[in-house]
Request: fold
Amino acid sequence: EAGVAQSPRYKIIEKRQSVAFWCNPISGHATLYWYQQILGQGPKLLIQFQNNGVVDDSQLPKDRFSAERLKGVDSTLKIQPAKLEDSAVYLCASSLDHYGYTFGSGTRLTVV
Amino acid sequence: GESVGLHLPTLSVQEGDNSIINCAYSNSASDYFIWYKQESGKGPQFIIDIRSNMDKRQGQRVTVLLNKTVKHLSLQIAATQPGDSAVYFCAALGAGNMLTFGGGTRLMVKP
Reply:
């Protein structure tokens, strides 16, 4: 079974620039999650999709972050404009039900 | 200004010894718990899970213990190997089926 694919693996941008991350979940997984993991901390949920609908985005800083999951498969997470404190690893995960999460390897974002 | 991440607690063990990693949770409504292993440059990897109607669950070289009275979870790794070196996170499934992660513990295995 192919895992959760994420790209790019690394990204370095200047503050105030924009950036986008892409995630392709495991085939058939209806639920998709984006997490932010700051260095030295556990992952923090940003947004949860069920198919192409948002289930929870209460932790998403909506003034600068946006996410979409068109057609209920791939998803993109965008940051515009980026701030220094957005430097983190952005993890995508998918699950068939709520008990079987699989994480991708993440995108490491550095904002300078 | 500069932002510094939290310093992860570290557990250092000798190869072959048993490791015990602890986790406390706050939401008594959580009914499902998972331990994850995260190696450098990789996403969290599932190790073992336990539901709130159980006190103990065993896997291959790993055991999870759940004490709901004090809201405490532990992961025991038997005969720890160098390949076990990683950061370990506990996570709890709570309201809205959201998975909430703890701060993590870095396990270092000395050969």
Remarks:
- The longest strand of chain A covers residues 88-95.
- Chain A touches chain B at residues 4, 33, 38-45, 48, 55-56, 84-85, 87, 91, 93, 98-99, 101-106 (CB under 8 Å).
